[in-house]
């Protein structure tokens, strides 16, 4: 199993290095393999395509770190995620611009949606329109992350999380005003 992770890590490093100078759309599996002196068969043994490799990078670097490391909940987990994106902004600002059926944005949505659904169902109960709210807020979160990390000089993660919290407070205050 260790050899498998060595191979995957080599392919990931090659992709990251290529993305420093080449747009993701122009990088081919052959380019990735040539960069780390592997053949395409090795690549396809581990990954379906280059999008799968990007998703693996996130899963290994971030998700495994969280499972092994701190036990984060709530806003602490959001801040931890923002810190990760900020530290790896050059890679993710490019990865988040790619829209394809297997893109990182779709992978990120698959991870965020269940968490969002859990929170929304806790607030709304089992309303029939809960899926609408989940999709609405997932779109907002993913768009906000993409816009934030794509800025030439993104604001620090702590400030970004504070602004996200304030957005929720604005929604609550608006609702209270409408109900008055």
Number of strands: 0
Quick check: average pLDDT?
87
Major pleated sheet = none
Helix content: over 70%
The outline comes out as elongated
Describe the structure.
This protein has 180 residues and is mainly alpha-helical. 76% of the residues lie in helices and 0% in strands. The chain contains nine helices and no strands. The model has no long low-confidence stretch (mean pLDDT 87).
In short:
The chain is mainly α and 180 residues long. It contains nine helices and no strands.
In terms of topology, how is this protein built?
Blueprint lengths: L1 H18 L9 H7 L4 H7 L3 H19 L5 H14 L1 H7 L8 H21 L5 H21 L6 H23 L1
Helix pairs in contact: 1-2, 1-4, 5-9, 7-8
Which key features would you list for this structure?
180 residues; mainly alpha; 9 helices; 0% strand; elongated
């Amino acid at each position: 199993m260790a050899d498998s992770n060595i191979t995957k890590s080599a392919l990931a490093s090659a992709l990251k290095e290529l993305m420093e100078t080449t747009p993701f759309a122009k990088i081919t599996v052959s380019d990735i393999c040539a960069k780390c002196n592997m053949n395409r068969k090795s690549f396809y043994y581990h990954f379906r395509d280059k999008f799968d490799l990007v998703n693996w990078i996130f899963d290994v670097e971030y998700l495994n770190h969280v499972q092994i490391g701190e036990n984060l909940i709530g806003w602490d987990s959001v801040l931890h995620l923002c810190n990760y994106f900020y530290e790896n902004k050059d890679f993710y600002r490019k990865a988040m611009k790619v829209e394809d059926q297997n893109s990182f944005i779709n992978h990120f949505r698959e991870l965020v949606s269940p968490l969002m659904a859990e929170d929304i169902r806790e607030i709304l109960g089992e309303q029939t329109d809960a899926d609408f709210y989940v999709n609405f807020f997932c779109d907002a979160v993913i768009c906000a992350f993409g816009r934030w990390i794509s800025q030439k000089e993104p604001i620090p993660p702590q400030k970004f999380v504070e602004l996200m919290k304030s957005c929720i407070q604005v929604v609550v205050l608006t609702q209270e005003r409408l109900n008055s």
